[in-house]
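User: I would dearly like some help making sense of a protein record. I have put the entry right below:
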Amino acid sequence: MSDPQRTPVVPLEAGAGPENPPCPACGEPLFGWLAAQPGLAGPVRRCESCGLGVVGDGASPEEALRELDRLGGVEATRIANRDSFASSLGSAGWAGLVPRARYLFTVEAVRRLVAHRDQVVVASRWVPGASIASTWQTLLNSVTFGHNVAAAALGSRAAVPADKPWKRRIDALASVVLAIPAMLIALPIELAGGLFKRGSELRLRLQVL
């Protein structure tokens, strides 16, 4: 006997439509995640199934695979993990949202994508130093007008500076004053991320079937 109080389960496919195009990795609908912001080509959608993030419109598996290939070869493809603790905490302030980004990968999204060309992910390794730096920058982004200001000053990541000189001066000061406190918070977040496979930066190894 069915339970009249039970909430019906609605499949993800029910959300498909012009506003929710299919994910290029797994085919499930993409739902809105972030509004358009400086440095990005449009609003950001995300897949609730594999976690892939897509910036702007017109996504395709072929384009996503080309972007993945630019992140390294089969032995060392390195991704900024959209399924990381830092991404969940930072949202629009996540350091992985870099200028001209088009696809925001997760391990599961990469698995689904490379299956289109008969490849599999055979290993996923946390990159501690880069992950801690990414989470540190994500925390700093929560108190600055610009995006990835400190990382850009250190030459490790592209930035979107604030639009006015006085804002840029405040950002520079905040990045210096809060650098150590942010690092003290970033360390335990990333240690937990590495432990629970939710680290900010991952190195993947692919293999052809």
